[in-house]
Amino acid sequence: MKPGTLVRLALAGTRSDTVRVALTGLSAGLATLAYLAALTVIVIPTVEDGGGRVSPQYRHALIAEAGLRPGVVVVLVLLTVPVLALAGQCALLGAPSRDRRLSAIRLAGASPGQAIAIAATETGLASVLGTVVGLGAYFGGREFLHRPDADGRLPLPTDVVPPVWWIAAVCVGIPVVAMLFAVLQLRRVAVTPFGVVRRVRTRAPLPWPGALIVVGLIATATVVPLSRQLEGDPEESGALLLVVLLCGLGCATIGVVTGTGWISYRTGWLMHRFGRRPATLLAARRLMADPWSGSRTLAALLACLVFGGGAAGVRSSFATDFEAERLAAQRSDPSGVIIEPRDTDFYFGAFNLVNIAIGVGLVIAAGGLIVALAESIVSRRRAYAALVATGVPRSTLAKAVMWQSLVPAAAGIVVALAVGAALSQSLFGDEVEREGIVLEVPVPVDDLALLGAGAVAAVLAVVGVGLLFLRASTALEELRV
Amino acid sequence: MSYLSARGLVRSYGRTPALRGVNLDVEEGEIVAVTGPSGCGKSTLLHCLAGILRPDAGEVTYRGRRIDTLSEGARAALRRTEFGVLFQFGQLVAELTAAENVALPLLLAGTGRREARTAALSWLDRLGVADFADQRPGEMSGGQQQRCAVARALVTEPRVLFCDEPTGALDSLAGEQVLGHLVRLAREQRTTVVLVTHDVQVAAYGDREIMLRDGAADPTGLGTVAAQQ
Ligand SMILES: Nc1ncnc2c1ncn2[C@@H]1O[C@H](COP(=O)(O)OP(=O)(O)O)[C@@H](O)[C@H]1O
Ligand SMILES: [Mg+2]
User: Fold this and answer.
1) Domain-by-domain residue ranges, chain A?
2) B167 to chain A: closest CA residue
């Protein structure tokens, strides 16, 4: 097949394909922007200033203080997780019409590999487009936001540019990763001339994700001791510690996400074994038939929660640290006069920013969930409509949909928050010490409960929307022949 | 009064009329084939008779009782207990095994799991697909799936079985097998069958044939029907 033909066939879609292409491009653009911003923060030069290492040309401490910048980088990189997950979910949008198109192309003589190549090319082209737009937005935004104040200080690091080859790596990497992701998604799909068959993995998941979580916790636990060891060269040790921290976070998050597959399967098995009601049977079988569906659809939500749980833990340990510092100061000066209290507002302001990022991530993740749930209902519409015709009450089907969505979600949410909180404990330890005053860092139960409640509310809202789709999908029109 | 009857059924979809006043009587234990060209309103008629759709005008009575005026819940209960429905394809739940699919209506009716499974296995056996009891629909051929669907439709021992092009998606040999089983079992159980088809060979399995043409029963057909405009 000539490249021209490949591109033409990849672009021969309908309106729902256009939506998918647009959303893929949009998320590629957003991801490009986020990665370029992260790289820019990484290349900010620092100067020694007494004890601290700072970049005095910036107005905000988050950027000016070298010690805080890894946090900014981590937040920027993590924000791309829900964006990319949404893109993955959107690959399902309009999939029936794409499937028909691919089948027709197969019927016309294309090989299975060529059909997959066409689908992957579509994703690749959309991502290239999005990346170019993201690149444009990055350079345009730099010009626009380069506004020094009266002292000549900048709001954002618009005075530095990452090396050209880093930028090139992002621009090439994002489309390539998107295409790999598309191929990976289509790996279980057999495009035959008579339709597209999705093969589901029927083997039961194994509990190895637990090991991944443990590895993640151990990695984060080594960060602080490692930083003491590497005291000598802060330039190098900073990068190394960041890598170790991101690896730990990554391992734990992947563990939580894949662990949801295992939990789904086991719960399905238990429900099948002990459930009595038809709704439980339907939900149980669905959970067992495709346990990874929970992992796939909940990935972004769970990643947000791991991070949110971690942030809550870090906040708690900072707050305890400030408290210990205050007590120590009070003790050394029994007159009770408070000697220049540290400006803690700044830190809590930063945490609030992180919380906003998590909130945005949760909303994006919920959007992805809606797409996934709607797709799973719509693709089963004939069977659902037939059940309703034979007298199965819609409420039974609605209950089955609720069970199959809420069970993995509830389990995943609890595990994600727990792992997040544990990550921060293993990073900073469970007590702080300031000049002889030792305080235990409390588990941030309130924050965790709030996050959990928010996530459950998001999932419930998604299920509510899904039930609307269920209503439309059980319309008996589906049975017309 | 007939066992199942329709009087002056009218039904349109938006401004497309599908039924324009159909009268029809079905006696107990009878196998009635409803035929006619594609788009003449056969499926719509079947859905009205089975209480899946409500007609715009006219009435449907089943054993002397009006059913078109019942609530959705009451009609669903009727479909669950007294009626069976069989469609062209795709009615089995993909994630459930054949036996679980067949047992589902019994479970919905409150039967215990073990008992429901035993009944399901015996029905699968009667349809010659017992070997597939623990397979999922995706692992069976179209004809085997459809026999499984017949088992699911009959497992509650319905009084009336409604079939809409039950062999429409099968080759003729598989279609004959499905229909052979279906008719034999219906006679054994004295189940009344309304069989909708556009295929004259399928219609030949019925005791009697009713022709629909443009939303009204055709008076030239063999059925005891009176067409109205
Ligand atoms: N949901 C619908 N919306 C609009 N028109 C419909 C719908 N269902 C059926 N029709 C129309 O009603 C007529 C009868 O349809 P149907 O009962 O399915 O016929 P048959 O089963 O005999 O092929 C057809 O002209 C069809 O186009
Ligand atoms: Mg029809």
Assistant:
1) 1-199, 205-481
2) A481
Measuring CA to CA, which residue among A284, A300, A313, A286 is closest to residue A419?
A: A313
Report how far apart, in Å, the C-alpha atoms of A191 and of each of A112, A113, A183 are.
Answer: 6, 9, 13
Pocket test for ligand 1, best of B9, B22, B40, B194 (most atoms within 8 A of CB): B40
Say whether pTM exceeds 0.80. no
> Which ligand gives the minimal distance to the CA of B40?
1
pLDDT of residue B221: 42
Separation of alpha carbons A86 and A107, rounded Å: 32
pLDDT above 50 for B226:
no
- Strands B208-213 and B16-26 come out as unpaired
Looking at per-residue pLDDT, the higher value among B175 and A72 belongs to: B175
Instruction: Tell me what the mean pLDDT of segment A228-257 comes to.
Output: 78
Q: What is the DSSP letter of A204?
A: P
A481 closest CB neighbour out of B96, B136, B165: B165
Largest CA distance in chain B: 52
The three-class DSSP label of residue B29 is coil
Residue having the nearest C-alpha atom to atom 18 of ligand 1: B43
pLDDT at A233 over 70: no
Mean pLDDT over each residue of chain A, to the nearest integer = 81
List all residues whose CB is within 6 A of at least one atom of ligand 1: A 477, 480; B 13, 16, 18, 36, 38-44
Q: What distance in Å separates the CA atoms of residue A132 and residue A126, rounded to the nearest whole number?
A: 10
Dist. CA B165 → ligand 1 center (Å) = 14
Cβ of B96 within 8 Å of Cβ of A285? The answer is: yes
Note the ipTM here: 0.73
Determine the pLDDT at residue B227: 35
Give the pLDDT of residue A478.
Answer: 59
Q: Is A231 exposed, middle or buried (0-12, 13-18, 19+ CB in 10 A)?
A: exposed
Ligand nearest to the CA of B88: 2
pLDDT for the residue numbered A386: 84
Cβ pair B76:A286 closer than 8 A: no
Partners of A280 on chain B (C-beta within 8 Å) are none
The pLDDT value given to residue B223: 38
Give strand pairing partners of B57: B10
Find, among A403, A383, A350, A298, the residue nearest to B88 by Cα.
A383
Calculate how far, in angstroms, residue B170's C-alpha sits from the geometric centre of ligand 1. Answer: 22
Q: What is the mean pLDDT of residues B205-217?
A: 84
Q: Which residue has the CA at smallest separation from atom 26 of ligand 1?
A: B39
Nearest-CA distance from B84 to chain A in Å? 6
The C-alpha atoms of residue B158 and residue B190 are separated, in whole angstroms, by 10
pLDDT at A326: 81
Nearest residue CA, atom 25 of ligand 1? B39
Closest residue in B to A386 (Cα) is: B91
Quick check: B99 pLDDT over 90? yes
Contact between B21 and B196 under an 8 Å Cβ cutoff? The reply is: no
Q: What is the rounded CA–CA span in Å between residue B132 and residue B43?
A: 30
Q: What is the pLDDT of residues A140-152, one digit of tens each?
A: 998 888 888 888 8
Residue A59 to residues A45, A150, A435: CA-CA distances in angstroms? 15, 11, 32
Q: Which residues pair with B83 in a beta bridge?
A: B160
| Mean per-residue pLDDT, A64-86 | 76
Closest among A455, A400, A410 to A289, alpha carbons compared: A400
A236: confidence class by pLDDT, cuts 50, 70, 90? low
